[in-house]
């Protein structure tokens, strides 16, 4: 995806804020907006400094801070790329993939695709369907595992009305639909998640899926996704074992 850095980064030479902070803050906002995708190549410090008409040392300092905070990574030639850590998952405001959360616990992550198809929604307790003329959604269901044991059960729904190109995808994309993928094809900014987190008692159906005893408690996280115009375009429902978030909070924060 092509980025117009001169529009994205506005340098205020009259501001008391250092130039490297101005560059860093605006790049961080860009990297968190889903207008860039994982592993997308960014401009070198020298090229970006030339476009912004500032000394390269300011960009190098900004890049260094972004690298330290896992927003970007460098290859062997010190070319910056978008780091997958910058993709917003939204769970408890952590800028991290579920896989990285599992890895941080010293466990091996894996993903099992359980369902991937187009469905027609007639009712939903999460999203207002009266705002949609077309009630068809892509439904994607995945189980995230740690050391081959279930940890996170994630259902995602994306509006066909908002993303008609989803009708053209084939089975090779099953399980791979996510915010960065959609942002490649549409001028959509994933600007806001409306999130509700509840303690959940697992019934027999989910106890079997999560390989736990019926009646144990975990988390249920419901999220509705909004674009830059504050219009909903999809939602997700997640079930998680409790110790994932307890350990995750201790080790990540």
From TrEMBL:
Any one Gene Ontology BP term: negative regulation of DNA-templated transcription
Domain of life (superkingdom): Bacteria
A single MF term (Gene Ontology): DNA binding
Domain UbiC transcription regulator-associated as annotated: residue spans: 104-246
Protein name, UniProt field: UTRA domain-containing protein
């Amino acid at each position: 995806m092509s980025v117009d850095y001169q529009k994205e980064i506005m340098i205020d030479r009259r501001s008391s804020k250092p130039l490297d902070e101005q560059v860093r803050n605006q790049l961080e906002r860009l990297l968190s907006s889903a207008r860039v995708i994982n592993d997308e190549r960014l401009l070198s410090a020298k090229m970006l400094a030339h476009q912004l008409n500032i000394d390269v040392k300011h960009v190098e300092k900004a890049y260094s801070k972004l690298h330290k905070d896992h927003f970007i990574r460098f290859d062997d030639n010190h070319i910056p790329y978008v780091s997958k850590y910058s993709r917003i998952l939204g769970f408890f405001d952590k800028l991290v993939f579920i896989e990285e959360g599992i890895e941080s616990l010293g466990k091996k992550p894996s993903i099992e695709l359980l369902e991937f198809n187009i469905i027609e929604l007639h009712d939903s307790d999460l999203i207002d369907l009266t705002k949609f003329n077309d009630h068809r959604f892509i439904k994607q269901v995945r189980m995230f595992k740690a050391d081959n044991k279930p940890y996170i059960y994630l259902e995602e729904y994306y509006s066909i009305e908002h993303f008609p190109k989803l009708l053209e995808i084939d089975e090779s994309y099953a399980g791979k639909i996510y915010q960065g993928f959609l942002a490649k094809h549409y001028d959509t900014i994933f600007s806001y998640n409306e999130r509700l987190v509840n303690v959940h008692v697992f019934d027999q159906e989910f106890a079997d899926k999560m390989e736990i005893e019926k009646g144990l408690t975990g988390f249920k996280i419901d999220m509705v996704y909004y674009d830059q115009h504050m219009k909903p375009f999809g939602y997700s429902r997640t079930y998680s074992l409790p110790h994932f978030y307890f350990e995750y909070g201790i080790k990540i924060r």
